[in-house]
Amino acid sequence: MIDKKNLSIVIADDHPILLKGLYDEFTYHGYNICGSAENGMQALELILTERPTIAFLDIDMPLLTGFDVIKTAKEKGANTKFIVLSFHKETEYITQAKALQINGYLLKEDSFHEIEKCMIAVLNNETFFSSSFASNMLKNASEELRKLKLLTPSEVTILKLAAKQETNQEIAESLFVSIRTIEKHRSNIISKLEIEGGANILSSWALNNKSVIMGL
Q1: Structurally, how many domains does the chain consist of?
Q2: For 13, which of 58, 83, 88, 147 could close a Cys bridge (C-beta 3.0–4.6 Å)?
Q3: Which of 89, 113, 139 is at the close of a domain?
Q4: Which residues carry this modification: 4-aspartylphosphate (predicted)?
Q5: Do 55 and 81 contact (CB within 8 A), yes or no?
């Protein structure tokens, strides 16, 4: 059971109709909504000011994404439990959620019953992913994160620069090393991440997974 009297919730979504629907659903079921926001900056301010028990955040919001809000709030010491509520089912989003150690990840198609199941889990310090996700998607995301954790700090830096589409020459100059050193690092990264393809495959992979990489 959830102790509704001692539970405070912040909700954030940039779609007014969806935000109102979520607010109405929570209040109908007797939950205390201490604030709602239509953009990431408002959401962050609410979380830092109200210190809610749980924050439900959309990912794609103006000013700051849901992931940006969570990362910044955690850096500022917030003890809030964070649950993402999104349309995104792609592996890269799941991987990023796992990398940020987000407490819960729900889909907007989920029922309120699923939302309550998620809240019970995260309040018991468990991580909850929507039952709508296929098990292999969660497994693939975990495997991607495992590989990324094999990278050294130098390799992570190079991968982030590659994600910004910087050339070997530009990366070498910014890190004050030789192009040969950068090429060696790139080769090691490709090997650790088990990426297959041609000479420019790392740059393409980094660009496609930029959101995950920049969160490392």
Answers
A1: 2
A2: 58
A3: 139
A4: 58
A5: yes
